[in-house]
Structure formats: C-alpha cells, structure tokens
Structure prediction request, 272 residues.
Amino acid sequence: MTVPVEAATPTPSPPLKWAGGKRWLVPRLALRWSGHAQRRLVEPFVGGLAVVLGLSPKKALLNDHNPHLISFYRWLQHGLDPTSVRVNLVNARPVFNANRDRFNFLIANGKADTTEAAVLFYYLNRTAFNGLCRFNSRGYFNVPFGAYKTIRYKDARDFAIYKEALAGYDFRCDDFERLSIRAGDFIYADPPYDVQFTSFTAGGFSWGDQQRLARWLAGQRVPVIASNQATRRILNLYKDLGFRVRTLAAPRRISCDGNREPAREMLATLNL
Prediction:
C-alpha cells in the first residue's frame, strides 16, 4: 500500500518590493546556514524578508529601523486583511496621491501602527515608483506614483500564508546595538548600501553608522555574515576587522536611477 506523502507548505515569496532585496543571495547563505539551522537567526536589518523566508529558521529576531516596515510585518504575522479597512487598492495616480496623503496624515497623528496604515504601506510599496521606500526629513513618505500598467494586489487569502511562516518570530524596531545577542545566535546583517541613496528612514544610514555596525559585528562571538555594496572603503573596513571578505556580482532588481547593470556585492564572514 502506498502511503500518501503530505505536501510541504510552499515557501512564500517576499510580500513587498524592496531595494537591495537578497532573494538572489539566499542559496549562498543557505550553504553557510545549513550547519547552524538549530540557531536563532538574527537580522538587524530585515528589509524585505527574503532571507528569513528563504532559510525558514525555527526562531528569529528580526529588526529594522523603519517603524512602518516592522508595523506591517507585525500585522502580517497576526493575519492582515485588507478588506477590514476602507483603503482603495487601485493603480491610479489620483488614488495613489490620496492614499499617500492619508498615510502621512496617520503618521502625523500618531496612528502609524494601525491596520489602515499597514494596508496603506503595502499599497504604496506596490504602487510607488520603482518600489522605493523613502521618507523625507519630517518622516513623511515622499515617493511619487509608479505608473505601472498593471498591478495585482494581494488579498486576505494571499496574506494568510505569512501568518504561519512568521509565527513565533520576534519583530523589533530599534538600533542594532540595542539587540540582545545570545550564545546560540547566527547573525546576518544587510544594512543600507554604502551609497548616496540611504533614505529608507528619515535619519538615513551614514558612514559613521557603517563603521559602528562593522565594529559591533566584529565584537560578536557567534557566526556572522554581512553583505554590502563592495565599495573600497567597505571592503577595507571589514578586512581590517578580521572578516573573511569576498565579492560577487549582484543583480540590480530595483535601482533608484534606473541602472540595471550588475553591481559588486561584498560578503563578509566571521566565526564560520
């Protein structure tokens, strides 16, 4: 008698467009993660969720300095239903402008962690130019309309898979130095690239922050992988701190200037 084999739950794809997303890098990371899968995965810059969804750890600490991103993930984790709020998910410039104004109104009035704000954040991410997530110095979303021909927006059934995939993960919105690292952790750090465009949050991510991060990572006693744009100063920074550094070609899936040519990516490892 043939015993039926239960089909594995498919790994969900990242729910957002995200500049610098690392879905392409997951197979390389998986080779290094495979011997440490019992550890808790710590991502100080979780970004678009590509790595944690690709590696599927049992435990994870997922942090980002963008409060709107983390709020969206928390709602996703608990079952986000776009139909529960009155948000018009239509790919049209007037609707986009109205939804962007409403999102910024919620930010200004202390309601950025509501269900409505989470749905608006998702809509703006899918509909804005080049999938960018950018905020001005006042903390307001300021990306223009994307003018895509067609967009398929997810509904409650599409979002349901993330509730199971993210169950038990700890989402934080804090500075990376405030994260409590345990002896059994595994860190993957993918900060904003060492390039001019770093306004994913109102404060940006400066060269001083890049140095602070590298030194913080170098001080950990757990396996560490860091990726970044392979600029000369980034490569030298990590080499000088004792990391094993290599470079590889990275696809530009989203680019702020429209350039889709391959970029050079740094992959730095420590304690592996």
